[in-house]
Amino acid sequence: MARKEKFKFNSETLSYEKVEVSWGERVLRSLLFIAPAILLGFVFQFAFSAWFKSPNEIALEKEIAKLENSVNQAENSLNLLEEVVIDMRRRDDEIYRVIFNAEPFPEALRDLGTGGTAETSYDHLKGSQLSDKVISNLKRLRKLEKQVYAQSISYDEVIKLAREKEKMLASIPSIQPVANKDLKRVASGYGWRIDPHYHTKKMHWGLDFTASIGTKIHSSGNGKVVLIERKKWGYGNSIVIDHGYGYRTRYAHLNDFNVKLGDQITRGQVIGFVGNTGKSTGPHLHYEVEKNGKKVNPTHYFHADLSPEDYEKMIEMSTNGNQSFD
Question: Nearest CA to 219 among 174, 152, 280, 255?
Answer without folding.
Answer: 174
